[in-house]
Amino acid sequence: MKQISGSQMICEALKEEKVSVVFGYPGGAALNIYDEIYKQKYFKHILVRHEQAAVHAADAYARMSGEVGVAVVTSGPGFTNTITGLATAYSDSIPLVLISGQVANSLIGTDAFQEIDAVGISRPCVKHNYLVTHIEELPRVLKEAFYLARSGRKGPIHIDIPKDVSAILGHFDYSKELVMKTYKPTFKGNAKQIKKLAGLLKEAKRPLFYLGGGCIASNASESIRELVKLTQIPAVETLMALGTLRSDDKLNLKMAGMHGSYVANMALSECDLLVSVGARFDDRITGKTSEFAKQAKIVHIDIDPSSISKIINAHFPVVGDVEQVVSELLNELKKEKFIPQSKEWLEILKRYDSIYPLVYEDSDEVLKPQWVIKECAKLAPEARIITDVGQHQMWVAQFYPFNYPRQLATSGGQGAMGYSLPAALGAKLAVKEEVVINFAGDGGILMNIQELMTAYEYGIKTINIILNNAFLGMVRQWQSMFYNENFSETDLSLQPDFIKIAEGFGCKGYNIHTKKEFTKAFKEALKSDKSTLLNVVIDRFEDVLPMVPAGAAIYNMILPKLKDKK
Ligand SMILES: Cc1ncc(C[n+]2csc(CCOP(=O)(O)OP(=O)(O)O)c2C)c(N)n1
Known about the structure:
The protein is of the alpha/beta class. The chain is built from 22 helices and 20 strands. Helix 1 (6-16) packs across helix 2, helix 1 packs parallel to helix 7 and helix 12 (262-270) runs antiparallel to helix 15 (343-355). Residues 388-392, 415-418, 441-444, 467, 469, 471-475 line the site of thiamine diphosphate. Pfam families: TPP_enzyme_C (PF02775), TPP_enzyme_M (PF00205), TPP_enzyme_N (PF02776). It catalyses: 2 pyruvate + H(+) = (2S)-2-acetolactate + CO2. Residues 5-120 form the Thiamine pyrophosphate enzyme N-terminal TPP-binding domain.
């Protein structure tokens, strides 16, 4: 068999894995790889302007497409710049492969220029990592990396490749069977457990589905919609699960947790059977764990056995892929001719929802962020939505009507500011003609604003909306509520000229103060062939409500004072 170089192997593997876009940034230790990237014709390479952006873009590409996202960087600082991106993808179980260059084998351990213990640093932020010291290992490692990224509980995989390994010739046999003795995820749920679960659903008086990111990851939305319809059992969604059910589904009680709806949090607190479907009981959902779903028998469906009973004790575990378990459960329920019993429970919940629906007080003097979000939904109802982190992220989660899975990409588990602009690029490359809207705060947008240049260079058109409160808004909110209004280092009233920034990067910018201005600019942005930056000046002191104070029980919500308002 003809021998090829390590760098050629990387490109061949990407071809075999049907990768169509790679995000990256070159440098000394990655030069061999980049020389090969220059010659290949299988995939498009996007030169971002910061390595963190490469990983966030690959991450959002994966979230939107369901494929594995890929990034390539150089050693040392090129690699360390990727850590926030890796941690973000790891927390949210997003499949991606990061390839980093490393100094040559002979230099490892010598404090060589741009040498860093990359696998040592990435270990806690990835599902698995490799330092490939011999060319013979490279084909297997590449193959395993893609398999691991997209199977079981998905996640980021890091491959560190010394410069000599990317140059040396070796045999590339990618067709070999993959044998991994110690890695065998369970996909199919235990049949007996599923039968018992069907029985529990039949007996429960106040059952509730608690849907998490696993519903999206395993493409289970259709089956879950069918399950909810058949059983007439209500459901709450985590931030990561938004879009699993349609937002207008009466049985969808919306997002639960710290900024969840009143009805969702009350349902969690009062249910007698809680069926967690691919959710991981994050502290932003559970609040005080000893008070969480106290009256309920807990069923925990998860592909990752180590997640089960990690935070909340599960009375009834089902290990398996969400889509497979839910399909099997549906078969069982249909076989037994399940009759919904939830009428009284639904009446109680309806009352909760009518007492405290998700509301905000609109104004004609100052723009309210919730109005802006709803206006976007009106003008572009099917758009893909990306958010950064902060108040705007929670308002989007509360007020944008998500209607299909993979409609939202947001940094959930890590809450990494700076995520959304590069993520919007990755998302747009995944969804092509669809509209991509990026909501960011005036703090977070500055963390990766250089990526407007990438957008311009490659003609990647996104609509970027800054919900500008001239504060690090979410932190300001906590300072208002819990720190005596000591606005320590959160005032951002000194503002850059966002229009000039946008124009400097070849994009179009707008300053917006009124509803009329917003609607006009947004319509123009939809039609524009350029990326746009809409700097929307909003009410400085608007809070995100409801809010469960950190560590409190989730039924102890700080609620908006207004009732029955839109
Ligand atoms: C990289 C990073 N640094 C700090 C934080 C802590 N943090 C969470 S929200 C927030 C404020 C965000 O402000 P802004 O981007 O203006 O958005 P807003 O809350 O006003 O919508 C901060 C500093 C974070 N999540 N990520």
